[in-house]
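REQUEST ID: PR-0412
SUBMITTED BY: lab tech R.K.
PRIORITY: routine
TASK: structure prediction, single protein chain
INPUT:
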Amino acid sequence: MIEKVILSIAEYFRVFQIICSIFIALAVSFTIERFFVVRRQWYWKLLLFGCSWLLSSMPFFIGDLVNLPPTVLIFVAGILLGCEGSLLKKLSLSFMIISLTSSFSVLIDNYLLSADSGIPTEQERIVYLSVKLLFYLMIYCSVKKFVPKKSYELSNRLWSLLGLLTLTPFCTVLSVVLFQEYNGEILTANAAFNKTILCLCILSFVGLIWAVVVLSHQYELEQSSRLLEMNQLYYESLERQQLEVRKLRHDMTNHLQTLAGLSGEEHKAYLDKLLDRPGIKRNVQYCENPVINAVLSTKTGKMELEQIAFAYDLQVPSKIDMDSVDLSVLFANSLDNAIEACEKLPGQKRKISLQAKNEKGLFVMKIENTAKSEGKISEKAAPGLLPQTTKKDRKLHGYGLKSIQEIVQRYGGSMEITKEEERFVLFLYIPVMI
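STATUS: complete
OUTPUT:
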């Protein structure tokens, strides 16, 4: 009878342990998804859950050289493979999460559940699991409340800075675990110091995450400011064009009378000069969408200055189901890359072609430009990874591609880059609401 009761209690404890482990792993994985765009295939989500379970359930005892290093490597590898974004972003955020979870695990594994006095009782284990579950649920709820769910994008410099700051709490935890012996007397003697250090490492997670949120918001403001500046330039260009048109209308009688009195080469030269006036030559209304018009009005001037032949076919309505800043970044960065590539070529070879349309629930964009011949390369951009061509052609097309790819993936679209002989093509499509 007693044996049956013991077995029944043990069985209930195992069920409780499994349930707690699942909920803890889910809390960690959901926290990760607040900062990363996880790849859509189910096996990547399963991989993320497995890595979260490993990191949150693995015991880290002081003096144990076996558990912590391989767990860190496996978790980082899971983030690199299963999540989208730049390498620096994934490394920085993953080590922030590692610092949090490892600090808490070292704290409770060594000072809440210690086996020096013998094997912990089931009651002690239940308390231990309950504390872990409560902590991770509290972290998830706090992050959910105070951290908006989105793809946090910063410059590589800022991610590098955050990565360096993250190394401080991570190396501190590593030092506590690896450079002390697992001995009851030593643990007791260093208890106050270890607890203080580990609690500070946990608090550092709050500061680092807050820094990510603030810096990301600042990045968005800079992007919005850039769009506003483009809009201002566009409307100034539009006003200049309207003023030029009014001048032409006012002087049209004089121009016609002058043309009537000229003949031959003088007539042709005067007419060419008249047609070259900005009010006639330049068309700032490239399509119905004001954001695209604003971007192109700033880029066409540079293309003219660099003697780049520009052809376009744009069929984009005034309103499209896409954030204005994102739409601006797509066109601005794409054209910047194309212009930079053309600048490496002789004047007669500089050509850019831009096509975009929005129909049947898809926004499709294709930009093609001439580029230096470096062999035939044709690759499709895999999710989370830039195509190999951008690495070999970094000087020509490295700038802005990460931003373009991040936007395309965030909207559930696809991007393809092709480099053939002297031709570079960027093609993308994004599903949008009709």
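NOTES: The CA atoms of residues 340 and 396 lie 6 Å apart.
REVIEWED BY: pending
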